[in-house]
Amino acid sequence: MPHTPTAPVILGNEPGSFPRGVLAERHPAIIRQVREAFPYGPDRHGALDALLANCTKGTIEPLPADAHDRDLWAEWGLAEYTGRSWYDIPWLWSESWFYRRLLDAVGYFTPGPWQGIDPFRPFKLAELDAPETDAELAALDDLTDLPAADRARALLHGSLWGNRADLGFRLSDASADSKEAAPGLVADDSDTLWSLLPPAGAGTLHLVADNAGRELVPDLLLVAHLLDHGHVERAVLHVKPYPYYVSDATTADVVDALRRLVSAPGAAASYGRTLWSAATDGRLTIRAHPFAAAPLPFAHLPTDLRAELATATLTIVKGDLNYRRLVGDRLWPPTTPFADVTAHFPGPVAALRTLKSDVITGLDTETEAALVAAEGQRWRTGGTHALIQVRP
Ligand SMILES: O=P(O)(O)OC[C@@]1(O)O[C@H](CO)[C@@H](O)[C@@H]1O
């Protein structure tokens, strides 16, 4: 019998816990920011007021009878959680539900003037247009003279640390921008990662993207390098089908990032052109599967997506939320082997993640002890540590 490890699912009801803070403070802050960012009329303000009351004090309510995705949410457990407090059900579920309901409140799915308007777009664009993005793109010129393998490693680290502070994280943590990245990684399987992506590889990379802007740009640069240097023949970029977790990338965000790259000075533009032509000839495809915004762990991948990922040479899973979905949003003992908790995944998988929630696996005993001695449990959520974990 294979060993199937398990641990308590994270809920939002533990007083003083990080998840409870997200439900009780971060979500109201996000409602406030979105409200202030658009000239919504009284109907939208009323709907945002109702959501604020519901998500902090109310219970999970059914979707309207004509909701386009009623069947999906039924499959994803809505009936089981209806009538229960947002705090008492799996945190992963209530967070996804928040973004789904926020989009309802701003009219994203309703025929009318606000249909399809991304409520997070002003924040995403501000980041893409920021001087820091210019500086990051200009730094690519310095990589040009490096041997290709060193450039690849630098781009891998760019993609990893690009995850450091997503916009949702920054809304409730004013110091997130100024935090120094810890020098070391808490786990580093990058040698295994490179062994799965040798030069002259003929396979397909799947990259499950996380945030737009300053995370997506380095993700795209890494993909461009891997395509350009023949590590893979094709790449598939998985994005969200609708705005989610404030800064998660959608197709529109990929377009913005690509346009930013091709119009940049210096080396950045040639990465952009590589990607643009790969998209044009089918070597780079974008996928926005509904399951990308599902409130469930990847152990519940639907059949079509499971079959697709089974053919991948490697799937790179970016970011904190995708890590939670990959290993299961549970309070694992930190030394639980990463290979055990990802055994369900249909092919080789790599996680690139900065640590922004309680979930962690795959640490060795010494690393965990050193982190606890230095920081108590703050290292789990502070966004200053990172990992590269691979299950071949
Ligand atoms: O997936 P990302 O962008 O790296 O992080 C998402 C995040 O900010 O949102 C969750 C709390 O809302 C946490 O899992 C994590 O801190």
Gap between N and C termini, in Å? 21 Å
Percent range for β-strand residues: 5-15%
Q: Tell me the domain tally.
A: 2
Class of secondary structure makeup? alpha/beta
Strand/helix succession: HHHHHHHHHHEHEHEHHEHEHHEHE
- Strand count, sense and closure of the main sheet? 7 strands, mixed
Catalytic activity: beta-D-fructose 6-phosphate = dihydroxyacetone + D-glyceraldehyde 3-phosphate; beta-D-fructose 1-phosphate + H2O = D-fructose + phosphate
Keywords: Hydrolase, Manganese, Metal-binding
Protein name: Protein-glutamate O-methyltransferase family protein
InterPro entries: ARMT-1-like_metal-bd_sf, ARMT1, ARMT1-like_metal-bd
Commentary on this structure:
The chain is an alpha/beta fold. The protein has two domains: 18-119, Transcription Elongation Factor S-II, Chain A; 124-391, Rossmann fold (3-Layer(aba) Sandwich), CATH 3.40.50.10880. It is built from 18 helices and seven strands. The protein has helices at 18-37, 42-57, 70-75, 78-81, 91-105, 121-128, 131-138, 140-143, 148-161, 167-171, 190-196, 216-228, 251-262, 267-281, 303-310, 319-327, 338-341, 365-375, and strands at residues 187-188, 204-208, 234-238, 284-287, 314-318, 349-354, 386-391. It has a seven-stranded mixed sheet, with helices on both faces. Helix 2 (42-57) packs antiparallel against helix 5 (91-105) and helix 12 crosses helix 14 (267-281). The longest helix is centred in the first third of the chain and has 20 residues, at 18-37. The protein is globular, with a radius of gyration of 20 Å. The two termini are 21 Å apart. The model is unreliable at 170-182 (pLDDT under 50). Bound molecules: 1-O-phosphono-beta-D-fructofuranose. 1-O-phosphono-beta-D-fructofuranose (F1X) is lined by residues 22, 95, 163, 166, 168-169, 210-211, 245, 319-321, 324, 356-357. 1-O-phosphono-beta-D-fructofuranose binds next to helix 10 and helix 16. Residues 23-368 form the Damage-control phosphatase ARMT1-like metal-binding domain.
